[in-house]
Write a structure and sequence with these properties.
There is one protein chain. This protein has twelve helices and 16 strands. It is α/β, with parallel strands linked by helices and 343 residues long. It folds into two domains: 2-130 and 288-314, NAD(P)-binding Rossmann-like Domain (Rossmann fold, 3-Layer(aba) Sandwich), CATH 3.40.50.720; 133-283 and 317-342, 2-Layer Sandwich (Dihydrodipicolinate Reductase, domain 2), CATH 3.30.360. The strands form three sheets. The protein has a seven-stranded parallel beta sheet, with helices on both faces. A seven-stranded mixed beta sheet has the order 10-11-12-7-13-14-16. The longest helix is centred in the first third of the chain and has 18 residues, at 103-120. It is globular and about 55 Å long.
Length: 343
């Protein structure tokens, strides 16, 4: 499969290039800066076609996507960049995936592009990375067999955060109020105080703040949840706020940093509670197997998926997570007995 990667010179995109090659796909590196792309492509011992395109030039985007079967969009801030790349994907008639962590971008994608994507017969899948898709998949698996949930909590713990330049730019751009799910509807978060969360080992009890990312938007898209709270531990926020903290540095053969993460999802319905917690290394690196596995399943699925979707709508969430476990990208740290993910 030929897969265009827009923003191919970025940090996360380099992991995605490697994952596509590992799975036998043919990447097409696309970006605005030809020299930066040459550097990124040069990290791989193979010939990768590079194409230049500018977001303010539909013609250049059309040329860049010509012949591709799908596009993975990696160049944030997605509040500014998602729309032109989605429009180009629709003109090309190809599936679209992005890595948006900005709630506003994903809300707009669902509202604006669902109908055009259905008309073109393609899938538009935003937030198909660590932020967004992983929490959505955990929630979907936890709610397997339930028609609804009274409450879902998704808590994320990072031991460190070496933010990329893209992450810092996104944070500066993403100033809109965060949205939470309450009484079955999205509403502005009311800035609650910090509180403790008891994560599985090795994190244990951590002070967390309610900080909704795109998990909230994805879950609200396809699951009947009355109330959802999304937390992040405070320690990595101090790194994010420190301008002297540098970008991630590779410490292994895969190019991953030493950063560790844990995502803990708890769903409650009546008197029943289900919990799944997964752990792994490097939030940027783990995004690659998530989005490429999503691409493989959506593009090779037995049914035609057309419209704008949360990833959890399109795949068997438990099987998807089990696949990531088998590949060694995540480990299951905690699960309620009898849940599908534990099989």
């Amino acid at each position: 499969m030929k897969v265009a990667i827009y923003g191919a010179s970025g940090h996360t995109a380099r992991f995605i290039l490697a994952e596509l090659l590992r799975r036998g796909h043919t990447p097409i590196a696309v970006g605005r800066n030809s020299s930066a792309m040459a550097t990124a492509v040069g990290l791989h011992a193979t010939d990768i076609e590079s194409r230049t395109a500018s977001l303010d030039s539909p013609e250049s985007l059309d040329r860049a996507l010509r012949g591709a079967d799908a596009v993975i969009h990696c160049a944030g801030p997605f509040l500014d960049t998602a729309r032109p790349v989605i429009e180009a994907a629709l003109r090309a008639g190809i599936h679209y995936f992005d890595l948006a962590a900005e709630q506003g971008s994903v809300v707009s994608t669902f509202e604006v592009f669902d109908a055009p994507a259905r008309e073109r017969g393609v899938a538009v899948v935003p937030a198909a990375g660590f932020y967004g898709a992983l929490g959505d998949l955990l929630t979907t698996a936890a709610m397997s067999g339930w028609a609804c949930a009274d409450r879902v909590d998704i808590a994320i713990a990072l031991d460190r955060w070496w933010p990329t330049l893209g992450t810092r730019r996104t944070g500066q751009r993403n100033t809109a109020p965060r949205l939470a799910l309450a009484n079955g509807a999205l509403e502005k978060l009311q800035s609650p105080p910090a509180s403790p969360w008891n994560f599985p080992d090795p994190f244990g009890t951590q002070d967390v703040v309610e900080l909704p990312f795109t998990e909230t938007i994805l879950v609200a898209r396809h699951l009947n949840v009355r109330e959802l709270h999304n937390y992040l531990n405070r320690a990595p926020l101090r790194d994010l706020e420190n301008p002297t903290i540098s970008c991630p540095s590779a410490i292994d053969e895969k190019g991953r940093s030493s950063q560790c993460f844990l995502v803990d999802a708890v769903a409650r319905n009546g008197g029943e509670e289900r919990r799944i917690a997964v752990a792994g290394r490097d939030i940027y690196a783990v995004t690659a197997p998530i989005v490429v596995e999503a691409l493989d399943r959506v593009c090779n699925g037995s049914r035609q998926n057309a419209g704008a979707f949360a990833l959890g709508q399109l795949v068997d969430a438990s099987d998807f997570l089990q696949r990531l476990v088998r590949l060694g990208d995540i480990t299951i740290e905690s699960t309620t007995d009898g849940m599908p993910i534990a099989s």
